[in-house]
Amino acid sequence: MDEADSRPDATRRSFLLKAAGLGVAAAFAGAAVGAGPALAEPNMHAGWRTCQKCLCLFYWGFSDSGQCPKDFGTHQSGNSPFYRLPWGGGWTPNDQPDWRCCHLCLRIFFAGYLSWANCTLARSHRISSPFPFNYVLPHDFPQPPGYQANWRYCTTCQTLFYSGHAWQGVCKYGAPHQAAGYNFVIPVN
């Protein structure tokens, strides 16, 4: 801090100028990625990984990593990066809420329908207290640094899977996932 900034009137002026500069920088950052969601999301839940066997996004924060639909063994993360999922908030042109974590298979699934089907451990996905979050997933905007695109909703198992490969992973019934809807862009650690 220089001498001019130590005066009370200069401190207020410095603060306002710095705040205005941050606002302009944020506006340019938003314009750089189009109409996408805010990149500085304060509510993030870390610990998500891609299963190398089924390509679903699953929670890796427990000793049990959930049941994989490919062979009904546990999910295997391999060299998957860690992902963060934003939670809280509602619908925007580039954000979809109502994504939840099933406490049985530990995969993220879309809970916005009346029926939750196709968990590998039960007839339907289940939500419980370890996962109270309503995840709001960003979609359909250019992939900025620190994010990964090509995440899709599977119409069969209602989960989120990575569709950036020719191989589309394995759904509950042994068939490939069936991609539909948005192209989700997920934050990577």
Q: Could you explain how this protein is built, in words?
A:
13% of the residues lie in helices and 25% in strands. By secondary structure, the chain is an alpha+beta fold. It has two domains: 1-32, no CATH class; 41-189, no CATH class. The strands form three sheets. A three-stranded antiparallel sheet has the order 2-1-3, with no helix packed on it. The protein has a three-stranded antiparallel sheet with strand order 5-4-6, with no helix packed on it. A hairpin with a 6-residue loop joins β1 (44-50) and β2. The two termini are 33 Å apart. 33% of the residues are buried.
The largest beta-sheet arranges its strands as 2-1-3
Distance between the termini: 33 Å
- Which range best describes the helical content: under 10%, 10-25%, 25-40%, 40-55%, 55-70% or over 70%? 10-25%
> Based on CA inertia axes, which overall geometry fits?
globular
Total of DSSP H or I helical runs spanning 4+ residues: 1
The Cα radius of gyration reads 20 Å
How do the helices and strands follow one another from N- to C-terminus?
HEEEEEEEEE
Tally of DSSP β-strands: 9
Largest sheet: 3 strands, antiparallel
Number of domains: 2
Keywords: Signal
Organism: Nonomuraea endophytica
Protein name: Twin-arginine translocation signal domain-containing protein
